[in-house]
């Protein structure tokens, strides 16, 4: 137990008093260590309690220049009632903010940065950075306001003759300009001096902290002592009034026109001011001649009853005369005011909202305790008690001073901003006891001290923001001297402060910093309310006397006061904060601080997901929510990056996008590969600007993994309604046997799940996001109504800059018995109601005989499937076997129908330049088998170099009786020559013949109409019910799209996706 006497404890505490933010003492110690390296490291000062650690710094920060320079003027202009309302609103705002701040500050340790730290850790880096910078700007402009206040005290009340630009003899705008220029010059000099003191060492500021605190307390006590004295013996401060106009008491000694002496009546100095000669018959100012001069007591005292006259406000326009309305005045209102510089005039236009903006800075400074939490013995106890006690004390002083000023001081003196009517004295100083100089000197030193504290605290706040790394542009300001002093931050602070000093008007600067402080306080309240409502598990403040309704009330008051003070400043401040927010969101470092906005996002997401469960979206709200299935190579790199480019062009950042890939194996064995694949997907999504989620699924085989992706992707009502997967490239190669089977199974699964399916063919030929089509067409071949998918997709694509200049064409097919003219009219009307701009063409397809080419092509397809089931050869031998059958079939087709072959070759001999893998049918190997082992590669496995360089002639020259070594091969297994002869004697299935005929005829028509189109969209037919026909299904689709550059096969999900209704 400490046995030291109480006086010793008090002196020790006072000796260690500091009003500097956390971190300054460490810098001071570092400076001492540099200066005296040989000395032992100084003993750390004892940690501070509530009184010296929180209460006194808050008192010193809250009481400031506005109380001494503007409080009496506010009471005079706004009236006792109006000013009391302003004071009550502002004090209530800070009290509610202090309650919210206490809750946040006692919910864990608050390091350096104070309010910035609290807001950023509660609302996230975006809000924290934006509000932190606003708070920094507010603190910096507060420094400018304090400096301007100190210069005003110096030039008007302490040393008027020190003015560089003389004001004597100037009137109106000239006098005002001279005063502002003096403020700018002296303000810059004082700012430079203060910045130098802060740069040299914070320890010098710290040593003066107690002096500044004493000045504040003594000044306020002097005012209260003066109020008490007015009740006993009011001070003599006469005010001279001509008619009802208050005179500037300068260059005259007696408030009278003439004086009676023993030698008769003589004129006074006042007479000489308004008349052209000292004689009684002189020509005088009309108003002076018509009205009497009255001398009234400026400080009538608390018992005088003057309070009743000061209850209500008197607002002036700039240049209006400050008058006493109760006195009579003889004047001609049409006559202009002469000798205006002899009267006390209003220097600015006043109104209620202006008074709010000017007054609010006098209640700021409530964060002084929370900024020093590291220096406190028990921060979680001291911050709430000290801050709330300080606000209670200052609010009591402010509210009482409103009534006391109104009850003690004459109204014309209150409205006299610069005390011109009371011999140029500071108005609040006239009330003070024992002398006005107590207030003048005390307020000068306290404002200088407050300016030093602002220039000390603001750079450290900026340094804390810069060190967090959330604003990349501010990183340089995180550095400083070797001991941590924020040199660069101090330089920027001085420059911003200089911009406030150049404004040169205390009344103009005060509303600016009011905006920034109000915004900061608003977000402190929001942070507390949000944490309380979300009930996050970590929200356990020791301070229990808070409630979310109080926080919301405080937030509402802050927002209201912002717009009351100045709506345009409020908009500018919000614009600055919004710009910083978006900049941090765009370029800032990602931080996970467990902030409330993330919790709010989770709550909002849960609520939205629960709402989505109520039912499927209306047709008007339907948009493709894509599940994009991509494949990866052995290094987990995505093989079809253009698939994500197409995704971006379809989505343009809207709706849901899930990019998924499947890996083969077990999750335990392939966890690292899955993580690499996930990172590759995220990187590619970022590159292609695809906003969405990625998902990697590992299963024993690729088919099951893809099925799991299809079933499990999404959450609740937020699920995909369309699947985007590329066409299996090189599917006719034996290596890709399982790939195309997986593809057909995927088509079946999307059908049963009622999901739309989009299959781009030749995806590598699709444009990247950086390309632009300056012209061209997107052709839609509308064969079957699929719910409107074919109409909607081109519309979505044309919203993207890649496809914006492409025009849309819709082709529909008419049979012989259809009325093509009526079909075109109906389709035109339908598109008009859909608000889709497109050219329409009806293509007539006449029934014709099935050509020998179609017949033989179908036969070759069926022979191949049948033969592969019967012949038990190795894979290489099968390839050669089928190639020889294909060659013989070609020969028979050419003999039977040479014209048809010529037509087909004319189409296929000119494949698109960008589609290397799409070779003409005659040049593609047709090899597949059920027993071919699944390739570990994914659907987009490219041809090997050997396969790509192999010429068609070399492939055709091989026969099925040759092996790789050129020796004859013997039949294997149970296959005999008779079996093979049966295959070549079989007849094709008639339904297959009809399908092949339709596919060939459609392909011919599409090539004729859309060979130059930038993109062709086609209906994708449904998969066969019988799995034995899977290969035929792939062949039909291949024939249907043969020779086309970019094709998007579309299969609807069984619901309408577009509507004519609004």
UniProtKB/TrEMBL annotation:
The alphabetized UniProt keywords are:
Cell membrane, Chloride, Glycoprotein, Ion transport, Membrane, Phosphoprotein, Potassium, Potassium transport, Symport, Transmembrane, Transmembrane helix, Transport
Identify one Gene Ontology CC term for this UniProt entry.
Answer: plasma membrane
Transmembrane annotation, as ranges: 75-104, 116-138, 185-202, 208-227, 343-363, 383-409, 512-533, 545-570
Q: Where is the composition biased (Low complexity)?
A: 931-946
Q: Does Glycoprotein appear among the keywords?
A: yes
Q: Which Gene3D superfamilies match?
A: Amino acid/polyamine transporter I
Residue span of region Disordered: 876-959
Where in the numbering of this chain does the Amino acid permease/ SLC12A domain appear?
53-227, 337-627
Ligase is among the record's keywords: no
Q: Which GO terms describe its molecular function?
A: potassium:chloride symporter activity
Task: Show where the SLC12A transporter C-terminal domain sits.
Answer: 641-750, 772-897, 992-1062
Principal location listed in the UniProt entry:
membrane
- Composition-biased stretches, type Polar residues, lie in 947-959
Identify one Pfam family in the record. Answer: SLC12
The topology of this chain with respect to the membrane is: Multi-pass membrane protein
Q: Where in the cell is it found?
A: Cell membrane
State the similarity comment. Answer: Belongs to the SLC12A transporter family. K/Cl co-transporter subfamily.
Query: Protein name, please?
Result: Solute carrier family 12 member 5-like
Q: Which organism is it from?
A: Fundulus heteroclitus
